[in-house]
Amino acid sequence: xxxxxxxxxxxxxxxxxxxxxxxxxxxxxxxxxxxxxxxxxxxxxxxxxxxxxxxxxxxxxxxxxxxxxxxxxxxxxxxxxxxxxxxxxxxxxxxxxxxxxxxxxxxxxxxxxxxxxxxxxxxxxxxxxxxxxxxxxxxxxxxxxxxxxxxxxxxxxxxxxxxxxxxxxxxxxxxxxxxxxxxxxxxxxxxxxxxxxxxxxxxxxxxxxxxxxxxxxxxxxxxxxxxxxxxxxxxxxxxxxxxxxxxxxxxxxxxxxxxxxxxxxxxxxxxx
Length: 272
Fold this sequence. Notes:
The protein is of the alpha/beta class and about 270 residues long. It has 2 domains: about 5-175, NAD(P)-binding Rossmann-like Domain (Rossmann fold, 3-Layer(aba) Sandwich); about 205-270, N-(1-d-carboxylethyl)-l-norvaline Dehydrogenase, domain 2. Helix content is about 45%, strand content about 15%. The chain has helices at about 15-25, 35-40, 55-60, 70-80, 85-90, 105-115, 130-135, 150-160, 170-175, 185-190, 195-210, 220-235, 240-255, 265-270, and strands spanning about 5-10, 30-35, 50, 65, 95-100, 120-125, 125-130, 140-145, 160-165. Helix 1 (about 15-25) crosses helix 8 (about 150-160) and helix 12 packs antiparallel against helix 13 (about 240-255). It is globular.
């Protein structure tokens, strides 16, 4: 590994916590903050420093990573207000903001504008995979940013994922992460990654066993389905497939399965 990076990390949820642990295990200095402090505190046992505020986590860092529920959570965590300056203005010289939350195309544009307003390099880097790949550092990372920032991000992206697919235009990664791009990039992305056959086997076996520990909760999958639908509509496409997927997921949430893994959606299909 090259020189250790100072990483400010916002978000210690189901995905964020194991991802941050893997970055620390790779030898980087990680300061983490989470709105619910109790979720971040156990990470101190793994060598991460737990910050009392998002601004404290970002202070002087080389890379800021946001891994939060949605675009509103990202903006709220940056400042608790409309502009994010309290955090983005605390980053170290020449720092990069690596935005790994699933926020959709419109949300990505909103955050990229925020970064530009504060003269911060921005990388759109959503991930494909759920809890098990996150724990193993085997997520598929889809990243969009300029060629100049890529080497600065690589040590962190390599720590959380088994592959990184780069795109030139910010926002493209958010589109590709939800399969509304062309067929060939999608096949290239999943080849050997967590959305390939092992991933399908994992979810399929959970459905057969009817055992759904919360690797990626249905509530989050339902939110992401809305992101998909919005991206399709924005691109001028027909959203019937996205509408159907969102409706089925919402039915599972309404049936009281919101905290179960997204594979539990099969139960509402069984009941149909």
